[in-house]
Design goal:
By secondary structure, the chain is of the alpha+beta class. It has a domain of 322 residues: Kinesin. It has 21 helices and 17 strands. A hairpin with an 8-residue loop joins β10 and β11. It binds adenosine-5'-diphosphate and magnesium ion (MG). It is found in: Cell junction, Adherens junction; Cytoplasm, Cytoskeleton, Microtubule organizing center, Centrosome; Cytoplasmic vesicle membrane. It comes from Crocodylus porosus.
Length: 836
């Protein structure tokens, strides 16, 4: 080393500075060496080292000196190369170490990554197989299971709720179901993301694996090249040692320089060649090292990239984990919420269910009780049913038997009934005879002529003031007695019955209806309404449309009676309506009402009377009656200018004929009911009346007197009854004689201004009634009923005490009053004409 000159050293330093990569400099240096060696050969092959130059021998051999110099230079170069090699080796080893470290680190990382991969794979496997997993997964699985369980529970609750609210409650848990579905969706999404992340992780693992493989390859190659280098180095150093030994031996033997030089020259060329090879080899190694470095760099780069990717993956995993955690938290929260809601819903449902269950229990209890009570009933019903079934089965036989028995029994019964009927019919006929006999006896006892009095109420027509004062009073204990205050004196009268003003049409009819029904049995009946005009005759007989009188009520009664007997009797009811005006009889239902009718004896010699041409209408209902009455009214109205005036001056007759036929006996009956609304009985002042008015009054007076005479004669059972004295009595001859019954309804006004007429009417009534008394009546047989002279003058009435007073003052015998009256009449001896 000490042989190096300053410039050479500098040159070496420059070369050194160029470093292992400056191959061109090395080539240049090698070319320089070759040039020096060529120069040595041209100059006789002399060789000198650096040290030798100072030697006097060297100076003497420039060739050797040059050689030595070139050798020194070569050695220097060799040294430099060795240094460089060492440096390179150091660097290489450092790099190897570094590579080793990096490799170890990489291995570690790979191991870590493998571990993680393994863990991930296991996790994935676990996840896939569902056997175990991380705590999180376990927890999640648990939660999923819990969720499933809760869902099941909720479903059952919902089903229960639905069951309970089937009729009127809709599902309120739809919200929860939706929430649950949403959560499940989210869970599925998260699971999908985890799967994706795992896929990506496995991809990255694969990549890392590939890189590791490549790294291992590169490492292998590096090791090979290092081993080659080491071998080459070994070889070079061995040769160098050999050369150095040779040089040292040459130095030690100068006498042999020439040959040595030669040898050296020869060897030097060889050495040069070897050096060249070594240099080229070195160059190649350097290139290899450079390449390796490049590869290493790339690998480092790749490693860094891997690191980065791993870091990214870790971050992503962290992110996923946090996401998972968050989702888990959210899920827990929602599960809690759902749990709460579920609990609440369950509580509500439970409460509702309890209430409903209570009601159901109550119902059930009721049903149980019903069932308990029904069971015995059911048993009874079953028994009944069974017995009925048996009966139904046995029914045809039983029926036949029963029918046979029944037929026999019915035959017997019919026979018995026939016998009984015959017996009954016999008894009935006997009873009928008896009844008729009894009735006749009763009529005979009661008298077949009865006299009722009816007092109308004070009306507007009576006006006001003293004239309209009520002068009639009644005996509260006896409905047959009334009192009249006339000119300051109280006169009392006794009739068969007295109707006060408040007596209704119904009350009146009640009293007469027995009389009316007797005409169904074939009796003739006459009912007369007697009294002054305005005393209520028409009211009593006809009445008003809404409050009918005797006429209509009598017909209605006859209809109902006939209907009641319809099973045994056939009845035909017919009516005639007539009037007697001025002793002329006219048919009010005829086509020519103005025509005067005659009363004739029947040509059959029966002595019966009949009116040829008198219309007779058959009636069956109230409507028929109303039509007949209306027709009669119309005919009556067309025949006169003033109906009221006319009706008060004429007698109106309603003749009802009831013809009956008894189916069982073949008996035929005919009864006549004559309802007569007489003309006004008031007296017309002698002076005031003339012309028509006078004639009317005379006719009325005559007919009323004739009626009185006839009744008197009948009741006193006189041999001769003067029926022919008036048209009225002649017409009613059949109905007044024999078993016939007569009712005289005497109508009176209670007003003060009418007291005179009232007095007359009542006296007439009482007189008719008093005739009933047998012995006296017989006595009075010779008396004429027309002797109404006491009615003539008020003074005569006023002068006498009342009839009641008279009778009471008598011996007290029931006939005393009438006797005294008749005596008086007889003593008076006045048979004056009827006053008009
Ligand atoms: P007559 O036929 O005797 O001339 P009416 O029957 O025409 O008398 O009666 C005269 C008036 O007195 C009529 O307005 C009638 O309504 C009335 N009248 C008669 N009797 C009664 C009575 N009992 N109740 C009420 N009003 C009666
Ligand atoms: Mg009248």
């Amino acid at each position: 080393m000490q042989l190096h000159t300053r410039s050479e050293t500098q040159k070496l330093g420059t070369q050194k500075k160029l470093g292992p990569g400056s191959a061109s400099n090395l080539d240049t240096a090698a070319q320089g060496q070759e040039a020096s060696i060529m120069n040595i050969e041209k100059t006789g092959g002399r060789f000198f080292s650096g040290k030798c130059s100072s030697l006097p021998g060297v100076r003497q051999f420039p060739m050797i000196q040059k050689m030595v110099e070139s050798m020194a230079q070569l050695q220097e170069e060799k040294l430099q190369l060795q240094e460089e090699l060492l440096a390179l080796q150091g660097k290489l080893s450092a790099q190897e170490n570094e590579e080793l470290t990096v490799s170890v680190q990489l291995q570690d990382q790979i191991e870590n990554l493998k571990d993680k991969l393994l863990a991930q794979t296991q996790e994935i496997n676990r996840f896939h197989s569902g056997l175990g997993g991380t705590d999180l997964e376990k927890h999640r699985d648990l939660l999923v299971t819990e969720n499933e369980r809760l869902k099941q529970e909720m479903k059952s609750c919902e089903a229960e709720l639905l069951e309970l609210r089937k009729q009127h409650v809709k599902c309120v848990d739809c919200e929860h179901v939706q929430e649950n579905a949403r959560l499940q969706e989210r869970l599925a999404q998260l699971q999908l993301e985890v799967g994706e992340a795992k896929g990506r992780l496995s991809e990255l693992d694969l990549e890392v694996q590939q890189k590791t493989n490549r790294l291992a390859e590169v490492e292998l190659r590096l090791k090979d090249s290092l081993a080659e280098k080491a071998e080459e180095e070994e070889r070079l150093s061995r040769r160098l040692r050999d050369s150095q030994e040779t040089i040292a031996s040459l130095k030690a033997q100068p006498q042999q320089i020439k040959c040595i030089i030669k040898t050296v020259e020869v060897e030097s060329s060889k050495a040069k060649q070897v050096l060249c090879e070594a240099q080229s080899r070195n160059q190649y190694l350097k290139e290899q090292v450079g390449m390796q470095k490049q590869v290493l760099k790339e690998m480092e780069q790749q490693l860094q990239n891997s690191h980065k990717t791993a870091a990214q993956l870790r971050a992503q995993i962290m992110l996923y984990e946090s996401e998972l955690e968050r989702a888990h938290g959210q899920m827990l929260e929602e599960m809690q919420k759902m749990e709460d809601e579920k609990n609440q819903a369950i509580e509500e449902a439970f409460a509702r269910a309890q209430v409903e269950m209570k009601a159901v229990h109550e119902n059930l209890a009721g049903v149980r009780t019903n069932l308990l009570t029904l069971q015995p009933a059911l048993r009874t019903l079953t028994n009944d049913y069974n017995s009925l079934k048996r009966q139904v089965r046995d029914f045809p036989l039983l029926l036949q038997e029963t029918l046979h028995n029944a037929k026999t029994e019915i035959g017997q019964a019919i026979e018995e009934v026939n016998n009984t009927n015959r017996e009954l019919l016999r008894k009935y006929r006997r009873e009928l005879q008896l009844r008729k006999k009894c009735h006749n006896e009763l009529v005979r006892l009661k008298g077949n002529i009865r006299v009722f009095g009816r007092v109308r109420p004070i009306t507007k027509e009576d006006g006001e003031g003293p004239e309209a004062v009520n002068e009639v009073t009644f005996d509260p204990d006896d409905d047959a007695i009334l009192h009249l205050m006339h000119k300051g004196k109280l006169v009392s009268f006794e009739l068969d019955k007295v109707f006060p003003p408040h007596a209704t049409q119904e009350d009146v009819f009640q009293e007469v209806q027995a009389l009316i029904t007797s005409c169904i049995d074939g009796y003739n009946v006459c009912i007369f309404a007697y009294g002054q005009t305005g005393a209520g005759k028409t009211y009593t007989m006809e009445g008003t449309p809404d409050n009918p009188g005797i006429n209509q009520r009598a017909l209605q009664l006859l209809f109902s009676e006939v209907r009641g007997k319809a099973s045994d009797w056939n009845y035909v009811i017919s009516v005639s309506v007539a009037e007697i005006y001025n002793e002329a009889l006219r048919d009010l239902l005829g086509k020519e009402p103005q025509e005067k009718l005659d009363i004739k004896l029947c040509p059959d010699g029966s002595g019966q009377l009949y009116v040829p041409g008198l219309t007779e209408f058959q009636v069956q209902s109230v409507e028929d009656i109303n039509k007949v009455f209306e027709f009669g009214h119309i005919n009556r109205a067309t025949e006169c200018t003033n109906l009221n005036e006319h009706s008060s001056r004429s007698h109106a007759l309603l003749i009802i004929t009831v013809r009956g036929f008894d189916y069982s006996t073949g008996l035929r009956t005919t009864g006549k009911l004559n309802l007569v609304d007489l003309a006004g009985s008031e007296r017309v002042g002698r002076s005031g009346a003339e012309g028509n008015r006078l004639r009317e009054a005379q006719y009325i007076n005559k007919s009323l007197s004739a009626l009185g005479d006839v009744i008197y004669a009948l009741r006193s059972r006189q041999g001769h009854v003067p029926f022919r004295n008036s048209k009225l009595t002649y017409l009613l001859q059949d109905s007044l004689s024999g078993d016939s019954k007569t009712l005289m309804m005497v109508q009176v006004s209670p007003a003060e201004k009418n007291t005179s007429e009232t007095l007359c009417s009542l006296k007439f009534a009482e007189r008719v009634r008093s005739v009933e008394l047998g012995p006296v009546s017989r006595k009075a047989e010779l008396m004429s009923w027309s002797s109404q002279e006491h009615l003539e003058s008020e003074s005569s009435v006023a002068a006498q005490p009342s009839i009641r007073t008279l009778s009471s003052s008598n011996s007290g015998a029931p006939t005393g009053r009438a006797n005294s009256l008749r005596r008086k009449l007889q003593t008076s001896g006045k048979l004056r004409p009827v006053p008009v």
